[in-house]
Design goal:
Helices cover 34% and strands 26% of the residues. The protein is an alpha+beta fold and 219 residues long. The strands form three sheets. It has a four-stranded antiparallel sheet. The longest helix has 17 residues.
Length: 219
């Protein structure tokens, strides 16, 4: 299924001539954080539910409250990760969609996009998760992919899960029968392997040595 298949039109966008009362009613009827407001089928902005509910004069039009509008949207070429970032950045569960001529065509709902992401091969495909860390100046995504593929592994996806001023942490989804070889290769290239894996022979050896030392000290 294409991401465009998730574009919805059930919730009708309001206009600047719509009343505050109609906006409040829409928010009361539906669990939405923002209402798209359009004029001549062009997006003017998104009205936050938290603001519209505080207006006491229900008979005035939204034209009086354009200063409350948030300005965010996406286009028909957006990717799944683009949308997840937009939802998070704008603290919204609804993202308006514009076509290439910037006309309003509908909206995405957060629940639909999260379901699509949860069912994507990146999360749904049976694989191993490996988290690695390296100095920011020495990190290279091309090198990461090369290390995985040189050991006959398949890299399903990767993303930067954490970073600070000195280092970057990367989460990898890998399909491989030789995880130990991949782990040891990352270590040889100076990567710190954060996740513990059952096939990590290096860690098992350290555990065995620690157990031996404890046994020796207890004698």
């Amino acid at each position: 299924m294409k991401i465009n298949d998730f574009i919805l039109k059930e919730i009708k966008a309001l206009s600047l001539n719509s009343t505050v009362k109609s906006a409040q009613k829409l928010c009361n009827d539906l669990p939405i954080t923002h209402i798209p407001v359009v004029e001549n089928n062009r997006l003017v902005g998104c009205l936050p539910e938290s603001d519209i509910q505080t207006i006491e004069n229900k008979d005035v039009t939204l034209r009086e409250y354009t200063y409350l509008l948030d300005h965010f949207y996406t286009n028909e070429n957006a990717t799944l990760l683009d949308l997840i970032s937009l939802f998070a950045d704008n603290d919204s569960n609804l993202i308006p969609v514009l076509d290439k001529s910037l006309y309003y065509v509908g909206y995405y709902e957060l629940s639909d996009i999260l379901d699509a992401f949860a069912n994507s091969p990146f999360l749904h495909y049976e694989s191993d998760t490996l988290i690695i860390d390296k100095n920011k100046t020495d990190y290279s995504m091309s090198q990461v992919a090369q290390i995985v593929e040189a050991s006959n592994g398949k890299l399903l996806g990767a993303y930067i899960s954490s970073e600070n001023i000195n280092s970057v942490e990367v989460t990898l989804k890998i399909v491989s029968e030789e995880m130990n070889e991949i782990i040891q290769t990352f270590r040889r290239y100076g990567y710190n392997v954060i996740t513990q894996h059952e096939d990590d022979f290096y860690l098992e050896e350290l555990k065995d040595r620690a157990a031996y030392l404890r046994k020796y000290l207890d004698m």
